[in-house]
Write a structure and sequence with these properties.
The complex is a heterodimer of chains A (329) and B (254). With 329 residues, chain A is of the alpha/beta class. Chain A folds into 2 domains: 4-220, P-loop containing nucleotide triphosphate hydrolases (Rossmann fold); 226-328, YebC, transcriptional regulation domain (Alpha-Beta Plaits), CATH 3.30.70. Helices cover 40% and strands 26% of the residues of chain A. Chain A has helices at residues 42-49, 71-77, 93-103, 108-121, 137-150, 167-184, 195-201, 219-225, 238-249, 271-285, 299-307, 318-328; strands at residues 4-13, 16-26, 31-35, 57-62, 65-66, 78-81, 155-159, 187-192, 204-209, 212-217, 229-234, 254-260, 263-268, 291-295. A 6-stranded mixed beta sheet of chain A has the order 6-7-8-3-9-10, with helices on both faces. A 4-stranded antiparallel beta sheet of chain A has the order 2-1-4-5, covered by helices on one side. In chain A, a hairpin with a 2-residue loop joins β9 (204-209) and β10. In chain A, α4 (108-121) packs antiparallel against α5 (137-150) and α9 (238-249) packs across α10 (271-285). Mean pLDDT of chain A is 86; it is low at 313-329. Chain B is mainly α. Chain B has 12 helices and no strands. In chain B, α4 packs antiparallel against α7 (101-130) and α8 (139-162) packs antiparallel against α11 (206-219). The longest helix of chain B is centred in the middle third of the chain and has 30 residues, at 101-130. Chain B is elongated. Chain B starts with a helix and ends in a 5-residue tail after the last helix. The chains are: A alpha/beta (329), B mainly alpha (254).
Amino acid sequence: MSAISVRNLVKKFGNLTAVDGISFDVKKGEIFGFLGPNGAGKTTTINILVTLMRPTSGEAYVAGYNVVEDPVRVREKIGIVFQDPSVDRNLTGWENLYIHGLIYGLKGEELRRRVEESLEFAELTKFRDVEVKNYSGGMIRRLEIARGLMHKPEILFLDEPTLGLDPQTRAKIWEYVERLREEAGVTVFLTTHYIEEAERLCDRVAIIDHGKIVAIGSPDELKQEIGGDVIYIRVGDHSSAARLLEGLQNNGMIISHRELNGVLALSVNNASKVIPTVFEAASMMGIRIEEIKYTQPSLSDVFLHYTGREIRDEEADWREGIRMRHRMR
Amino acid sequence: MNERNIVYAMLYRQLRRYFRARSRVLGTIINPLMFFLFLGMGFSASMRGMSAVIGIDYLAFLAPGIAVMTAFSSSFIGGISVIWDKEFGFLKEVLVAPASRTYAILGRALGDSITSVIQSFLIVILMYAIVPSLKVEGLLFALGSCFITSLMFNSLGIAIASKIRSPEGFQLIANILIFPLIFLSGAFYPINNLPAVVKPIFYINPLTYSVDLTRYFMTGISSLPIYVSLSVLLLLTAVFTFLSARVFNKSTLD
């Protein structure tokens, strides 16, 4: 049985369709990621799965229970770390955990022991009696993850677990999530718009865009699906790009291609062998190549491939996205 | 399943927060205390004839009104914490818990009411020290009456706050409601001698029954039979508690 099973899930807010008929399954014990830009429908999906929103249509089962018909059963089986903090800032870390344990039916010695364990897991034992409003963002996130695990849920939901955290803290949170898999054996459903996060943590990733799942699989599978390397060639204008593409297509080395604003992106199996033929063809046709580079595929390319956009900034145009990445390397 | 746990959890939380915010303790006492001292001493000194009409010293007459005013305003305003919880996210922690929301809201109302009664207790003790004629044997019953009042108005506050998004909006409603309700409750003057046209306004005000019941316990005089006041209060408390649970039960994020 799957930990999470979703069929044709739809959620509309007035005219806006936030989730547009998605279906997927999450296996027990895996770390499953929803990767997509802001506004893609990730948080809405989580809110439906954790019973805080009702779907417009479709079905969702979490830990075997229908989220609409059996919300309390679902709530018993899950732990959640929301995108925004949901701790009581005026209480200490200890008090927040103590209240959480009470709410989830723990009592007496057992409750106190779990509070201590959770503080230890979050590495916050030293700060147990400090009010949460004095915690840093990373400390709050650690406290919330420990709290979400305190009642030993079958499935842990993490909505953008490292949003707004500095790189060091982010790496720390990643270590936590990895420890979950090893120690707790809990199923994790997380959403993120950080490529590195999905790539590092997830056993399987669903790429979501405009409320639809455009691709699903392990990071490796997804990368293989779009082919091997990607070559980006800037020739300046659309017609030169089209001509160049035509000249290259009959050599049978191009798996797929995309062109925007005079930048040609080619998926190929072995870029270092294809690049010389690109230069040959270009010089034969008298096309000047302004810029050329190739990348081993990353999830970022997978995203680009399926959505035609960079994930980092959905407004920036495609070429701008390539430039940005160029500068970053 | 774990109803008792969730009630206790929320109770624990409200009390913890209360004792941590000590400035709030003082803040909500100062207003009624000023009313008691400045209004009460002024009236009792300059209108000696009034004591003859109401049968007791004006300060003794006013004391129960002040006790109820304290319980009422602090408990009603306590409802605002639901809005802060929405804003700071803690509400989600409660909404996704596998526990009864009805009991969660009950625990919360109990916690807030206990803190309101603590406020009332502090001011009542002061008033007993100032006015020796107040009946010591009625003190605990008076606090009980303040507790029912708090539970009633905290539930109403929670029900209203659950429907409102901004703290400012709730503050506005509180400002519009609190003073008229207090002035039209018989807290400051007896309602027996009022013109018949005005009286119904007092009788539809729940606070009238709180003041009258509390006054009976603290001074021995009352305008209405105590069983009437008590029944009205218990009935309204049940209604408002039910209402707040109902509103809260329906809370989702959309």
